[in-house]
Structure formats: structure tokens, C-alpha cells
Design a protein that fits this description.
The protein is mostly helical. It contains eleven helices and six strands. The strands form three sheets. It has a two-stranded antiparallel sheet. A two-stranded antiparallel sheet has the order 3-6. Its EC number is 2.3.2.27.
Length: 321
């Protein structure tokens, strides 16, 4: 599936602390890493050495305090034994348990984005789009206001109206200075959807949103202008990551460095890497066993301990005869 999943995100966080905020910056919209600014002065940013004192556009949700979803629980949760993947809302970017979305989670590889119920309610006009563009929920079926007679014909006509609005006829005059408002036309059709639970959207749904001046202003005032940007989608994000990974294959800096060392040095580097990997795993498992959240101070303390240990080992080797 094309939704950003917490499981893969947590896996990628098993890196040194200076890379953690870089990863967060890649998966959160408009987020810049805090390495080297007022929050973490002792760390030098590998991306931008010259940093602003504060990243004013950064939004620090409860995720930054180690809790997620509407249940405000940590991930992984030591008290929760239920297997449940977490899905990220494309608007607020919080991670939510599938069972807490208030809707049936579809199992379809063509789906790529989800908007949580809270964000839908904060932006009621999205419900109009949901009635026409979103993936129908098995439990929350779309309702169409029709009379008792000729209901099938009426539904068919409604669907044709929606198609004409979303994909306007090429006969429409190109001389129009201001395109007609798609949202207003969808509202006039009168098709309704139960306004409850999260909403899943199929691929290319953003291309069908109205971009008239009025709707652009509405989206801008709600900080939702990014919905008109199809390059902002999760699918684009994942494809970009795959392309970068393919380009980097065969150019691993660690392997390139090892090629320049003799056999003994290569073995020492590999053994050292494996030792640190095992110690980091043990270090993190202690937190998981105690149900504690790993903080930046904990990671920093781990690497400081590794540095002191390495200095002791180097001193011991120096005095060996």
C-alpha cells in the first residue's frame, strides 16, 4: 500500500541522532532539522551549517513527545498486544492506529492517502469532495437523495453529473477568465456522505480538486494549499526515495572506504561496526522492556559511552607490548 506506515519509519530511525531530524524533515511537510540551532547547539548540522536560531515553521505535535494517534499512546506500545499498523494523515501528519480511524480500512493497493476525521471536520468543504471522490466505505456508504420511483435512473444521472463537473467537456469556452467553481457545482448536486470517520482517497484525487481563485484562497487560509500540489503526495515521496536508492546502489561510501584498506583493517572496521550494532540493539531493547521512550539525550549518552570506551581501548592497545 502507498500509505506512509509507522513500522517502516521506526525501522529507519535506528540511526545516529544527527540523522534522525533529517529523516523527520523528509517525512513532515515544511519541517527543518533543529541540529545546530538554539535547540541543539552542541550538534552541527550536516545539511546546513548556518542555521536560524529557531525554525518558526516547525510544528511539534504530541508525536515529538513519543505519543501518537487519538489514544496518545507510544509506539511500540508495551501495553498493547494488538497487531495494528499506523497510518499517517496527510493533513495533520499524525499517525493513527487503523482501529482508531472510525472507518473500515480498505485493502487496496491503489489507495495512497488518508485524512483523519478531525481534519475533515476542521475543513467541512472536504466532506463535499469525499462524497464524490473518496473511496466508498463499506460501513459508511454514500447516500444519494432520490425519490421512491426511478431511483436507479436518478443515481445514474447523478453519477453523470459528477463526471461532467469533475471532467468538464472540452466544448467549454476557453475564453473564460475565471473557471467555474467545481466545489460549488458538486455541492449543488446534493450527493451526501455520512460525515464520520477518516476518509481514504484514491490516486490522482488531488488533480480533481477545484483550483478557482475562491477555492485557492480557501485552501490557503486553511493551510491546505499543498493539496493542489500533486508532487506533495506520498506516492511521489516514495518513488523519489526508490529512485535515490537505485542511484546510490554501487556507491556505498562505507564500502568505498573499505576498498582502500588492507585486509586486517577491513576486518577491524567490520568487527567494530558489528559490536556497536549489537550494543545499540541491547541499549534500545532495555527501553522497550521498561516501556520507556528513547529521547535525544539517551541517544547522545549512548554514543558518548561508545566514544569513552573506544578511547580506553585505544589507550590499552598503546601500552601493549
Amino acid at each position: 500500500m502507498f500509505w506512509r506506515r509507522m513500522r517502516s519509519w521506526r525501522k529507519r530511525l535506528q540511526l545516529c541522532w544527527q540523522e534522525v531530524t533529517q529523516i523527520i524533515a523528509h517525512i513532515l511537510r515544511n519541517f527543518r532539522c533543529d541540529c545546530g540551532n538554539r535547540k541543539f547547539k552542541e550538534l552541527q548540522c550536516k545539511l546546513h551549517p548556518e542555521k536560524d536560531e529557531v525554525n518558526n515553521l516547525n510544528k511539534y505535535s504530541h508525536n515529538f513527545f513519543g505519543v501518537y494517534c487519538t489514544c496518545s499512546r507510544p509506539y511500540p506500545d508495551p501495553d498493547d498486544q494488538v497487531e495494528d499498523e499506523m497510518i499517517q494523515c496527510v493533513v495533520c501528519e499524525d499517525w493513527l492506529h487503523g482501529r482508531h480511524l472510525g472507518c473500515v480500512v480498505p485493502d487496496c493497493v491503489e489507495l495512497q492517502e488518508m485524512i483523519c476525521e478531525s481534519c475533515m471536520n476542521k475543513n467541512p468543504f472536504l466532506w463535499t469532495y469525499a462524497a464524490h471522490l473518496a473511496v466508498p466505505d463499506a460501513a459508511l456508504q454514500v447516500k444519494v437523495e432520490t425519490g421512491p420511483e426511478d431511483s436507479k435512473t436518478n443515481i445514474s444521472n447523478k453519477e453523470k453529473e459528477v463526471d461532467d463537473v469533475i471532467e468538464p467537456s472540452s466544448k467549454r469556452s476557453r475564453a473564460e477568465e475565471e473557471p467555474s467553481c467545481t466545489l460549488r457545482q458538486l455541492q449543488a448536486i446534493g450527493q451526501k456522505r455520512v460525515q464520520s470517520g477518516a476518509v481514504f482517497w484514491p490516486s490522482a484525487w488531488r488533480s480533481k480538486l477545484c483550483s478557482c481563485n475562491t477555492c485557492q484562497k480557501r485552501l490557503s487560509e486553511a493551510d491546505l494549499s499543498f493539496l493542489l500540489d500533486e508532487s506533495d503526495t506520498v506516492l511521489t515521496y516514495e518513488n523519489k526515495g526508490k529512485n535515490n536508492e537505485q542511484r546510490q546502489q554501487g556507491h556505498d561510501p562505507l564500502m568505498s572506504a573499505l576498498d582502500n584498506l588492507n585486509r586486517v583493517q577491513q576486518l577491524e572496521i567490520i568487527h567494530g561496526y558489528n559490536d556497536m550494532k549489537a550494543e545499540l540493539k541491547d541499549f534500545l531493547q532495555r527501553f522497550a522492556a521498561e516501556g520507556k521512550v528513547v529521547t535525544s539525550d539517551d541517544i547522545r549518552q549512548f554514543f558518548e559511552q561508545q566514544s569513552r570506551k573506544r578511547r580506553r581501548d585505544d589507550t590499552g592497545h598503546f601500552y601493549c607490548t
